[in-house]
Amino acid sequence: MTHTLDALFEPLELGPLTLRNRVMAGPATLLYARDNVLSDRHIAYYRERAAGGAAVLVSEEHAAHPSALGAFRHACTAWEPRAVGPMRNLAAAVHEHGASQLIQLYAPGIADTSTLRLDDWEPLWGPSPLVTPDRGEHVVGMGQAEIDGMVEGFATSAANVAEAGLDGVELHGAHGWLIGQFLSPLFNHRTDAYGGGTEARCRLVLEIAQAVRERAPGLAVGVQLSVDEHVGAAGITPEETGAQIAVLAASGLFDYVSLSTGSQFSRHRTIPPMGTPDAVLAEHGRRAREIVAGRTAIALLGRIRHVATAARLLRDGHADIVGMTRAHLAEPAIAAKARAGHPERITPCVGENECLSRAFAGLEVACVMNPVTGREGDWAVPAPPSPRPRRLTVVGAGPAGLRAAAVAAERGHDVMLLERDDRPGGHLALLAQLPGRGDWQEGVDFLAAAAGRARVRIRLGTAATVDEIQDTGPDAVLLATGADWERTGRDPGRPGAPPIPGADAAHVLDVEDAARRVLAGGPAALGRHIVIVDDAGEVLPIALAELLGQGGARVEIVTRQAQAGARLHATLQAPEVLQRLAALDVHLRPGHVVERIAGDRLELIEGWSGRPAAIEGVDTVVLALRRAPRDDLAVPLREAGIEVHVIGDARAPRRAAEAIYDGERIGREL
């Protein structure tokens, strides 16, 4: 371990707990529950993070009241007695490895959905009778009986946590959930004892904390706050948060305050995506420590991805403990690898937000960089040795090929990797060169380094042929040759329609070809007026538009979809990216399809009305419609009697998460 990381490994007294270091695996929504209690998948996930050296783990949000289960169909309950048994299993798994485990308790309030569950269509509760900002539901303002019931629900939940032998609770007062709604003047319009000023808005969380202390006196108690709702003076501001922290610290009820940010209006600030600066809340942590003056600990969240950053935050007085949430989704052994002096072996979080896009869709959470996340109970790390080591040739050093090669070599196979380009990474290496996508290079470097450590022999600049592959003498070949963007002009949104007339013209390019030309020759390589036809909804066409706009080109994006860059919306990258495109005067035309490319003229149809439209004076048309597998080597190799496995985009063009998973899968199966 280098001395620069020493601050990470200082012990910390946190209420009744003595933490072995300052590393917190922060609360991440996982949605692994079975019948709304902790599952074996949960327990395997947390066990690995405890074994990986984190001092304290905070669970995903657990419902603390009967009204609180609607927000996530596969979330966990804490208020029901049946939750105690699974929580007891969690305690045993985590304590075996010397870590402490807290349960995060919450109620969603107006951020819930009243009709998600068929057997309970009660209206939503909130601090005041409002209309929800995202779904337009009318909210019932809570009376004293509802408030008292909510306090009792949290207290009962904490008692269940204590009965299970767990170590503490964190009250979720951030991100626009119920406690945060009471703390926010945006949602709390009350004029009674629970509203009207900072102390009154803090009353609910203080009553909950007091009840928790009385019912479960041996637990550590923390609270998570949003330092800013990013709606100006109408909501929680950093100044208001400072006043709230002063009230909470003075109460003596909290062993720590955890700092996050954002609400329903600013989810992209809560979970900052790729391209966002690291440690975005650092200065808020420093100010909070000054306010509490040692009366309680400050835990800091907010895109803390690297151990060097975490150690600096501790060393420079920005936090007492660092919450590395998505970082632990990517790498369970952050603390252990850092302490062993191998931070370069920590699987990086690249901020692609595959995790949260799945959570928002109600799916079990996964990690783009680590296919084992969520599968800890099925896939051991490291993968067990192969009972029959073989000679393998992998064709293609994109994400699937790199992962497959590394895992197979770690298991004892002799692996040769052939790559036609002069650098590894495939389409991720291309994306990494585009605006806001640079974090992908960190992911590529990690995948390539893992293959190198496993002694994979990598030949770059080798366009593999059947003869060349045969010359490597393989027992089996893994084709990870990726996919090509189609140039036929066939629009997947118009089944049965013929190719776009004019799509074969010389000034019509596929999006990957266009991006490579611009990176090689500058924005002028495509002319002054470029139209990107994007029906894929992926990142590449949007990133290309930004690159062209930065170079002064006039750029228009035409899409049949309701919004450009659908994937960016799912991963919370859209707010920042679309603002940057607007600043570059990139023009978006949603809901349009291309009927014809006639020289420098594009003829369009507006999808909703059927009205014609046109774009004139176009220098280059860029098509981003769909990708086709690049699998042409599979048949001749099989005809030559070679065992072939097609993986990644060559098997089915999908996203990086699926490609890396496919590499992991085949590397373990062979």
TrEMBL record:
Q: Which cofactor does it need?
A: [4Fe-4S] cluster; FMN
What are the residue boundaries of the NADH:flavin oxidoreductase/NADH oxidase N-terminal domain, all occurrences included? 8-343
| Sorted UniProt keywords | Flavoprotein, FMN, Iron, Iron-sulfur, Metal-binding, Oxidoreductase
List the gene name.
stcD_1
Molecular function GO terms recorded: FMN binding; iron-sulfur cluster binding; metal ion binding; oxidoreductase activity
This protein is called N-methylproline demethylase
Q: Which family does it belong to?
A: In the N-terminal section; belongs to the NADH:flavin oxidoreductase/NADH oxidase family.
Tell me if Iron is a UniProt keyword of this record.
yes
Gene3D superfamilies, per the entry? Aldolase class I, FAD/NAD(P)-binding domain, NAD(P)-binding Rossmann-like Domain
User: What SUPFAM superfamilies is this protein classified in?
Assistant: FAD/NAD(P)-binding domain, FMN-linked oxidoreductases, Nucleotide-binding domain
- Say which species the protein is native to: Capillimicrobium parvum
Pfam families, per database record: Oxidored_FMN, Pyr_redox_2
Going by the entry's taxonomy, the superkingdom of the source organism is recorded as: Bacteria
| Ranges for domain FAD/NAD(P)-binding | 391-644
Lineage, highest ranks first: Bacteria, Bacillati, Actinomycetota, Thermoleophilia, Solirubrobacterales
